[in-house]
Design brief:
- With 311 residues, the chain is α+β, with helices and mostly antiparallel strands.
- It has 2 domains: 84 residues; 180 residues, Glutaredoxin (3-Layer(aba) Sandwich).
- The protein contains 10 helices and 10 strands.
- Strands 1, 2, 3, 4 and 5 form a 5-stranded antiparallel sheet that branches. Strands 6-8-7-9-10 form a 5-stranded mixed sheet, with helices on both faces.
- Helix 5 runs antiparallel to helix 6 and helix 5 packs across helix 8.
- The two termini are 47 Å apart.
Length: 311
């Protein structure tokens, strides 16, 4: 069961639900108003029940689906309540926030944005870069932060894409953060530890190791991971004895765990997920990557300067 696909359909439907609100045409003061009488404030708990009943009926979520509807709380928008919803089935789960009118009649799914606030500032504030592998100008205004998994095939595709595209943007900075998906990638954590130990011996050594792992991804197995990764790190210039001692040290896992916690706070759930100046990009998407880089490179250029890619 692909729960994410199922829930994505639910989220889309909830978004479309907003269209059921009686229309008042923009710029038309004479647009008809709903003739339905105003509803009294609902009794406590009734909004939760209405949301649950609607979702179960609309998506045929029977007893095998666990649906939890949280307590409504005030939202940033007057007369709207925000209600957390979590659906679980088949060992997986997903969650979302829906918005419900205070009378319990209308519901929609979407992002409430304050137009007075930079919409990307919250993401950027949660990205901590110190102590992680980085290349490119340290003071760059164009920063890519990748949450990656060394065993992930899509991450390998992104690595190839970045090797091709980033040289066209010499003023961009790339930061790599670990997000090993241990439940499906048995040697990903070992690779993250090896990467941290390679980084301790130098940024250049880390990036050579980083590329070596992706270039040799098919040669690494759960059985040979420790020795094979150490071999790749040595080929990248790492001292093998120092590296192996570091990999066996429990303290080496701490920054990896911090990176995982940060990713979860940012609601990262798949790899690769890259934040380009706070904008989220999931997967290796060359068109979206170039779009973001072109826009941010132009925005970062000094006034009067000609912004653009290196020729």
């Amino acid at each position: 069961m692909n729960l994410r696909t199922l829930y994505a359909a639910a989220v889309l439907a909830l978004t479309m639900l907003a269209g059921r609100v009686p229309a008042r045409a923009q710029g038309n003061a004479s647009a008809p108003k709903s003739s339905a009488p105003a509803s009294a404030a609902p009794a406590p708990g009734s909004i939760e029940k209405r949301v649950e009943d609607f979702l179960r009926n609309y998506y045929a979520w029977g007893p095998t689906f666990e649906l939890k509807v949280g307590t409504p709380t005030p939202s940033p928008v007057q007369n709207l309540l925000q209600v957390p919803v979590t659906v679980s089935a088949g060992g997986g789960s997903d969650s979302a926030i829906v918005y419900v009118s205070k009378d319990g009649r209308y519901m929609f799914r979407g992002d409430v944005q304050d137009l007075n606030v930079d919409p990307l500032s919250e993401n950027r504030s949660k990205l901590h870069l110190d102590g992680y592998a980085s290349k490119g100008p340290a003071n760059s205004k164009v920063v890519l932060v990748e949450f990656g998994d060394f065993e992930c095939p899509s991450c390998r595709q992104l690595d190839a894409l970045l090797r091709e595209i980033l040289p066209q943007y010499p003023n961009a900075r790339l930061v790599f953060k670990d997000f090993p998906l241990e439940s499906i990638h048995p040697w990903a954590m070992t690779a993250s530890l090896a990467g941290r130990c390679a980084l301790q011996q130098g940024q250049d050594i880390f990036w050579k190791f980083h590329d070596q792992v992706y270039d040799n991804q098919d040669a690494v197995t759960p059985d040979n991971a420790f020795n094979k990764l150490a071999e790749l790190a040595q080929a990248a210039g790492a001292n093998p004895d120092t590296l192996k001692t570091c990999m066996a040290d429990p303290k080496t896992a701490e920054p990896v765990k911090q990176s995982i916690a940060e990713a979860r706070e940012l609601q990262v759930n798949s790899t690769p997920t890259t934040f380009i100046d706070g904008r989220r990009m999931v997967g290796p998407d060359p068109n979206l990557l170039k779009q973001y880089l072109d826009y941010d490179t132009a925005a970062a250029a000094p006034a009067g300067a000609t912004a653009g890619k290196a020729q």
